[in-house]
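Notes, Module 5: Reading structure tokens.

Key idea: the token line is not a picture. It is a compressed description, and you learn to read it the same way you learned to read a sequence, by spotting repeated patterns. We will look at two proteins. The first is printed below with its tokens.
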Amino acid sequence: MAVAKITKRSVDEIGKGEVVWDSDVKGFGIRRQTTDAVFYLLRYRHNGKQSFYSIGRNGSPWTPETARRQAQRLLGVVAEGRDPLAERQSERQTKPETTFGDEVERYITKREGEVRPFTFSGLKAVLREYCKPLHPLGLGEIDRRQIAVLLNDIEKDRGPVSRNRARSTLSAFCNWLCKEGLIETNPVTNTNKAPEFERERVLSDDEVREVWGSLSGQFGDIVRLLLLTGQRRNEIGGLAWSEVSLASGGLISFPSERMKNGNEHKLPLSPQAKAILERQRRRNDRDFVFGFSSRGFAAWSTAKASLDEAILAKRQAINPKAKALPHWTLHDLRRTFSTRLHELGVQPHIVEACLCHISGHKGGVAGRYNHAQYLGPMREALELWANKVDEITA
């Protein structure tokens, strides 16, 4: 059993799974769990029974000095014949416990403006939608098993990538709760990550034809635009009329706050893409063309599942034993768009401009001196691809 003066150095150097007791204050100690978290604790006896009181995790407000003073105060409580652990448990039972949902909203309010809008949108979706089953629970009720069950459900409904992104967001939130002194340990620690594989799916001509032929309604028009423009789903799903100009050839001007890389993006429209936008009904009560992104991540999942069912139904109408289209995602349309433009002979820097990628001609030092928008060549490339889609789906 290690005994030493507990200082910042001893906190930094303690090994995983080890406990060190302070040489100055009897019963005061530190313990490092299997993670990097170090906790201050007090061991004491009350009525002949030994108890361990967790003072808190190292970090604001707990330092070796503040934790030592707290240990001394608690020892004074024991000297008076009282049990500090029993008093804390009694206080928790009588005091309404803060719920997970309450702290989610406080955390979201704090994070707004600290991260990019694209990241903030994902953060809100995970904590408000994916984690909704945890919202009614008190913070003290949430343990690793519940987190593991939630992550398994997310993976089942949305796939391994969504599970891992949700796990990362949830872990950051729980670390914040620890630093706020609301929980002692991060329950996400030591939960499993799902294996991720390099996403390389590019749809064949036959698959493009099947997808296109099964599209219907507003979601169908969103998918058509995703294939014709190569943009991300949130960029098209959240498109606003104020971003669209249908004059002349047509142009979408995405503001910087809506783009993943934080750069404004101007996208010329092919006649086919322009026609899709022209047939959308404008509403006086909202600026959204589709407003799909505002419905949350669950809406995307439901609509995509319905599309897959429609594709399978058409397959089975021809062959009752037909199987579903091999797994694909909406982001595969962006990869298909990029691949096909290169195959059609479009210059790589024009493809990158269409995708709003910062690399090659726009990356590093070159990007600081090259502010060309390439709108003319981009329009030619988009029209070339749209005509090819017409040919494939005719």
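Here is the second protein, with the sequence above and the tokens below, as before.
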Amino acid sequence: MTPQIDLQNTIDSEGIPKLENFQLWVKVTLVEVDYSLDEPEITVRIVSTNESNQLNLSYRGKDKPTNVLSFPFEKPEMIPLEELDNFLGDLVICADVVSREASEQNKPLLAHWAHMVVHGILHLVGFDHQNNKQAAEMEAIEIAVLKALNFRNPY
């Protein structure tokens, strides 16, 4: 499996991981959940607090920036193009929020970036945490993926 990632960095910030990091994190996450696409395509957009706030307000009704937003791709029914089948969706990650959280939680910055990508990818493939059972399942997968990537338990 070779994830194809369109990395869109809209800000100038220290500590943003390299494309290779994102590719590895996506691949290990998808392998862990037995996702079947050979070449999944994902957009990862690194944004400012302002853009994160606007998107979070528009799509989740929350007037504050957030660490990661996931937008699963929904293929329009009228378009039968098979080449769209590889699109998983978009992750929007706010670098400032990730950096602040890593500092507040005494986590290595790279580890927190990895966690946000893993968390976001799980949302793209259908996982959620709306109740305790879903949250426990999602957290267990996150812990396993991060362990495979040599990061400690984020919880």
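Summary for the second protein:
- The first strand starts at residue 4 and ends at 9.
- The chain has one domain: 4-148.
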